[in-house]
Design a protein that fits this description.
Largest sheet: 6 strands, antiparallel
Oligomer: single chain
Strand content: 15-25%
Number of strands: 13
Helix content: 25-40%
Radius of gyration: 20 Å
CATH superfamily of the largest domain: ATP-grasp fold, B domain
CATH architecture of the largest domain: 2-Layer Sandwich
Bound molecules: adenosine-5'-triphosphate, magnesium ion
Length: 364
């Protein structure tokens, strides 16, 4: 074990979020309840370090200056702005404090789904065809064939996503675009709707040192998976958690997708299949894609990549997004469920993320 460190856990609690009259009910669903930082603190203490919690708002600057931690465990989503998840990391870099997880550019990039998809396209990594809309009157491109899927460009926890996100004609498209603009006041992302299974893969650790934003080394230039790549990536320090499938069959009539309602109200009732029933080949492909997205986006320490497997094309995997700050709520967060499937407790998962950051920052 590394030396005893002083860790500050920074999160944004839902109960401390700003309140306005016209906020939708799901507006702050990406934020945490007290349970999450409490469990993270208990885990860090179990790991032999000191830990204290601070709300990740502007008051944190004085607190961090007064009580300089050795490392910050950051899970702040922040509240406003097109790069909100980067704001606390930017402050931490100004304060010259090391922190867990991905850095400023990566967090800003991955929050913005269209920007991330442009990067994935450049690397020839599969993501659904898409178009962005800045207003409801823009013309739909000819190659965007219904059914399509409409979502806000920069949200998480399926904020703004319901069965109405699947649009089957121009009228439904325009209605949903209007809803996104009025409610979330941001660009709308319209994607090809991928009918099929829903799988998410978590990883913990790092590949290589700096975030070079390129494919894993041996692949650079070939852009193809070659035998032995995954072994190299594992040996380099990346742990692949088993893929988790959300069993959407009981909700086929009501939603058919992983909506905000399922992630919040019904989170404890859903059946999660973990490891998801997949062939060895499919698993390897998904693991490789997960590592590749992690690497090209420049992620650190942990992440979760969401996929849909296209039932109309031999279950070809499509990358929906990467979450460089995946939820760490005990029991219900996807990453926590995946870890549990290989007997990694919440506390151990937290300590693995922490250790990845400790090693990366040379704090051993
Ligand atoms: N193109 C698509 N085709 C089919 N379903 C989709 C598509 N895009 C999103 N979905 C559905 O909506 C859900 C949420 O989408 P996405 O993962 O992009 O949102 P999110 O709010 O960022 O999620 P997270 O909670 O993982 O942060 C997906 O898990 C999937 O069920
Ligand atoms: Mg998602």
């Amino acid at each position: 074990m590394s030396r005893k460190l002083k860790i500050a856990v920074l999160a944004n609690l839902k109960k401390n979020a700003p309140k306005f009259d016209d906020l939708s009910d799901d507006y702050w669903d990406d934020l945490d309840s007290e349970k999450t930082p409490e469990a993270i603190i208990a885990a860090i203490q179990q790991g032999g370090h000191e830990a204290v919690f601070y709300e990740g708002d502007l008051s944190v600057v004085d607190k961090l200056r007064a009580n300089r931690p050795d490392l910050v465990f950051n899970i702040c989503e922040s509240h406003f702005g097109d790069s909100r998840e980067s704001q606390i990391p930017a402050l931490l870099e100004m304060l010259r404090l090391p922190y867990t997880g991905s850095r400023v550019l990566t967090l800003a990039l991955c929050l913005d789904k269209p920007m991330t998809k442009r990067l994935l396209n450049w690397h020839e990594l599969p993501t659904p065809a898409f178009q962005t809309f800045e207003n409801e009157n823009e013309t739909l491109d000819d190659d965007m064939i219904f059914p399509l899927f409409v979502k806000p460009a920069r949200e998480g926890t399926s904020v703004g996503i319901s069965s109405k996100s699947i649009v089957r004609d121009e009228k439904e498209l325009r209605e949903q675009l209007r809803f996104v603009f009025q409610t979330y006041k941001q660009t709308a992302l319209v994607e090809k709707y991928i009918a099929g299974r829903e799988v998410t893969l978590g990883i913990v650790g790092n590949i290589g040192g700096f975030s070079a934003r390129r494919l894993p080394q041996r692949l650079y230039g070939t852009r193809r998976r070659t035998p032995g790549d995954l072994d190299d990536i594992r040996a380099g320090g990346l742990l692949f958690l088993p893929p988790m499938e959300v069993d959407l069959k009981p909700y086929q009539q009501t939603e058919g997708i992983y909506t905000n309602r399922l992630k919040t109200e019904l989170a404890e009732q859903i059946t999660y299949l973990c490891p998801a029933p997949l062939s060895r080949e499919q698993m390897e492909e998904l693991n490789w894609l997960t590592a590749a997205v992690f690497r090209v986006c420049g992620c650190h320490d942990f992440s979760r990549v969401d996929f849909r497997l296209d039932e109309n094309d031999n279950f070809k995997p499509y990358i929906l997004e990467i979450n460089p700050l995946p939820g760490l709520t005990p029991i219900i967060s996807d990453l926590v469920i995946e870890a549990a499937a290989v007997n990694i407790s919440h506390a151990e998962l937290v300590n693995r993320v922490l250790d990845a950051a400790i090693r990366r920052h040379g704090l051993l």
